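Course assignment 3, question 2. Fill in each field.
Student: A.L.
Task: Predict the tertiary structure for the chain below.
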Amino acid sequence: MKKIYSSWALNANAALNDPDLKPLAEFIETGSRFSLFDLTDSCWLVLTWPSNKRTAFRLAYSPGDLLQTKIINSGNHIRLNINSTIGKFHIVFQLPTDRCKVFRYTVKITPKTPLLFPFWPRDILPLSVSKGQFSDGVIIVRQVGTRSGQLYFNQEKAGSILYLQNLTALAGYNQQTETSAGETVGGEWPEIGFALPPTLKNKPLEQGKTYIISDAIVAFSEAIPADESSVTRQYLDLLAEAYLVLPKPATVYADWPAMLSKGLKDLIGSPGCWSQLDGHHYFNAYVSDYVTPPEVMVQLAVLLPLLDYVEWSGEELEVMKKVKEGLPSFYDDKFKTIMRWHPKAADKLEGEEEQKQPLVMDSWYLHHPLLNLSRLALKGDQAAKKLFLDSLEFSIKVAHHFNYQWPVFYKIDTLEIVKAETQPGKGGEKDVPGLYTHVMLQAWELTGEKRYLNEAEKAARHLHGLGFNLFYQANNTAFSSGAMLRLYKATKKELYLELSYLCLANIFKNVKLWDCNYGNGKHFPSFFALFPLNDAPYTAVYEEQEMFCALHDYLKHAEDVEILPSARMLIAEYIRYLVHRAAYYYPPMLPKEMLQEKPKIGEVDPNLWIALEDLHDGWENSGQVGQEVYGAGNAFGILPRHYIRIPGHSFMIFTDYPAYGYSATKRRPAKFRLAGDGRITCKLMIVKTGRAKLPEIYVTANGKRLDPGKKISHGNIAFEVQGDSAISIDWKE
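Answer field:
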């Protein structure tokens, strides 16, 4: 098939290949040449690779114009002031350094008149040496929806690029023009990169006001990876390098102990959270959803975080006993397995969705409850152990029937496929082999039977070769990453370590490395938020909660493994921002006017401390799906992992990075180690738990005494500390 190009691409390629074209300026850094060119109506930055291949980046554009450009060279930062008919451009180009092969260009415009952009060409062209052709290459990752404004690609005989548009910086443009930053980075080869969202509405940029219209961060490497594991490693490494340059929003301490108290009260006391059936109490999936029968996944998804909290706090929660009493009712003696829907209410399903039929199983819904039952069993719960072991053989039977490649939906009784693929040609639930591997590893740990380890290995190998198409559902992929790491530690086979990185790469492809500060997005932080499915239009509390816990476990299992530093850093940063962001899933934290009045399921009570399932792009209402009872575990997962209790004292230690190597004793000083990267700082706080005045606190990081902390609200004391630090905290009685 003959390739088709636009006039913008053809004309730019021809002009940049003109042998008489002279650069405005040139710079040699990290073995590569950077040249600035004026093409009368556009200004270009051209990267010439050591192989002499070239990649062009458009900095400024004023169609049919004659630009007037002034360059100011100030060391590592090159400034361009460009006058044009439409306005004044101010561009800052930051050169790479020997330590960091990343460059950045930020473009601002001050319009001379109210200005519309009905079309904007993409800003990257892989140049050829011929006027009518372009260099070949392949796009591996691009922006989907409102995920990160990223583009990861290889250019033939040149190298690899991870392009990351700082979409946070475009908030002024998006707010003024009422446009979204979603689907702005991508394109079709060779016309790729970022394009301003068109101003189709009568919402022009204001005359005389300055707007950022691009803030691009480009990490590059001369290496072109040859196989899946090399691609995965390079993606994580380049993303981490770009992330270090990316401006990141400050985090704000959220009072999780207070929110947990409110959430627990509403979870237990709100009638909308509960249903009764056959003498037992069950959590509804959504607030006031009395139509859908009880689901086993929902009960366990709330129960396990409650257990985490009870083990940390030493409290007893009667609600846990109430939930556990109803779990055996989900077991079906005929099929020898737990069922998704309560067997005595499944006939009430109305079939309005494919999976809402009595004997239809969503593939991951079989294994996820088994995983949680195994966690209970490993903590000594005998009833959970029986349910788990009694259901294992059916789980294995299904795995063998589908050859470890699960469809989306199938029938429990016949294993007939109800829905084979998520979309035509896209395959089924591709990360379920990893979830199944996790279940089998739990069975092996619980019983010591080697056949479960063998099953785990057979399933794990089916993740190999899936590349960036592995991700089906976020929590499944997160559990898969940990399972692969555990399998590597058990077998010492490098394949499984590489597969753990593949899972992580799929996860970080599906996050949002920008803050939506326009429209409703101004009311809640969204930086580093996670999308539950690879095409979901919103971020979701339940998947984020389980991702958070799974990545904590990954770091714990990796304490004695030399994992990729880039993976270690990105995991810690996701966790840090989740602790900052997750409070805004609670409706009382949000303005009522941005909440959906009539959700798809149940009701949304703006005063109830039960999390919304969904947070959307700034121009959309949130809570469109409903208020998610099975997402109630957020606070119960955060407290045990980020608050260190000091027995006998009226304060706790809080960190927004994971902390390791500490047990709750009266010993002094308190010592532990922070996860993360030493190039990034995190919060460490002394949090009051009573009315007594805090003692004098001394914090030492990596052997160096820190300055006294900053006193903040409620008498708490805050410190900024580097990641990957050894922390010692002492106090004067």
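Instructor remarks: The longest helix spans residues 382-401. The chain is about 30% helix and 25% strand.
Grade: pending
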